[in-house]
Please model this.
Amino acid sequence: MDKHKLLKKVLIIILIVAAGVFLADWAMGKYKFWQETKKVDKLAQALRDIEKKDYEMAMADTFGGQTPQETLEMFIKAVEQGDYELASKYFIIPKQTDELESLKSAPKENIENVLGLLRQINMEEGSYNTNGDNYLVRKPILVEFLLYPNGVWKIVEI
Model:
């Protein structure tokens, strides 16, 4: 009978240890899941903050026209007048600095060639996307426009 009681105690201890290991493993899994969820939540908040900042910047950016055509005309006029600072502001915010540098460093002949192509654009040949917030002209030169949330059209690329 002693062996039987000893075996019973050993089995109970083994079951308690196994249950403890199982419980610890389960708790560790829950803890890791919570940690990962916390990381995802933190990333999601950072993205919301970036999106909010971008939205606020876009709302404050009033350089551009009420139509893609108007924005294109404003851009052409600014370049013709040599006001590259103003011309660069007709681009979307992330591209303004690069476009300003590009305009400043481009040979006059290249600028005149691009202006010539821009003047030939028939805006009626362009097309809106399904949301109506993007306009694309392909000929004689590709020009893409984006509607900012404040109702101003900006140039994405030329």
